[in-house]
Amino acid sequence: MTTPAPANPLASAAVVSCEKPSLPALSGFLAAVPDPRGRQGRRHPLCAVLCLILAGLLAGRDHAAAIAEWGREYPEEVMSGLGFRQGKTPCPSTLHLILKQLNWTALEEQLRAWAEAVLVALDLTREVALAADGKTLRGSLKQGSQVSHLLSVVVHGLTLNLSHEGVSRKTNEITALPKLLGRLLLEGRVITVDALLTQREIAAQIVAAGADYVMPVKGNQPALEAAIAARLRPEALTEGEVQQAETDERGHGRFEWRRLTLVSLPDDALDWPGARQVFRLERGTWRCPRTGDPRYQSSSVYGITSRARERAGAAQLLGLTRQHWGIENRSHWVRDCLFGEDASQVKTGAVARAMAALRTAAISLLRIQKEPNLARARRRLQAHPEQCLALLGLS
Q1: Max CA distance (Å), the chain
Q2: DSSP 8-class letter at 271
Q3: Which of 281, 314, 329, 361 has the fewest beta carbons closer than 10 A?
Q4: Sign of dihedral through CA atoms 323, 325, 330, 331?
Q5: How confident is the model at residue 125 (pLDDT cuts 50, 70, 90)?
Q6: Torsion over CA of 89, 68, 366 and 106, rounded to 10 degrees?
Q7: What is the pLDDT of residues 348-368, one digit of tens each?
Q8: Gap between the Cα atoms of 72 and 374, Å rounded
Q9: Minimal CA–CA distance to 348: which of 145, 137, 93?
Q10: CA of 390: how far to CAs of 78, 110, 235, 309, in Å?
């Protein structure tokens, strides 16, 4: 039976329900970050400095020098609204020094608490889907930073970043994800990952936390891939046990279709923690350039999930697999191309991580306000700094 697949029922419900919502003030959570500086010579409040960086990012200033300039371009009452009381805002070197000394764990904890409070305000505390994926800070990598790769967990649809975990040169995402998941509230949620993170220990951790996973299975798990392929062979299927869903998308000279074939598993049918269903995802893409012949590409990948059929049919799983890659074009791409993250040449890992965390917070602020065009929103905020204060909960 073929059923139409919504983009993602969980994510679409989240977006529809937040018509310019009244959300927890991010500034209140930033005020709880401990100040690493000694009392002597402390001129600018830490919360004001963090709010200045966020306001500058919201207004189109991507780096410390530009943010410091932004702070000195506007009237004193705007800076007073951010929390500065002595008529002068920090210079770029002061911003860099403060971020270098900042307690990264405490900042991340407060940003995570704010994101969870936003989900509570939107009544999305449990039934949400989370995508886990990593991103390299290329500019910092070129400068030799020891931590230049960040693993992120983002809410599907909302693109609300819940947490980061730094990945040093000596480790990889496989060892970082369990630490990151251990800090999150997972019960009742769905975690989607890419094939690299399809690991037995990660699946077991997710299931033990009362959550579910959706994992693609490729060559890094050959035995599991072979078992799923055998289960999905036509001769192994019985009438009525297969469920399918299809979608197609057209536009900009491109036509793309997807088909997901889903089969339930008997208890203990596969040696994999919590496995309840397996699927095959087929994808075909036609590209029709203005000149030349049309080009066609196709691919097929297997997958596994711990969600039972009554909680996740073929249509929902197709939506979840599609929405997982929203982290690439709605978060990673925005950080690189709109917020200039890859252009940043910050060598100090602590500064690079703090700036990346604040960039994702700025993106989250814009996303949950349903801004359709983030570049246009940043230009508007540059002309109206009082709106930056309102987004931070300072007015």
Answers
A1: 77
A2: S
A3: 329
A4: positive
A5: confident
A6: -70
A7: 668 888 888 999 999 999 999
A8: 24
A9: 145
A10: 11, 19, 61, 44
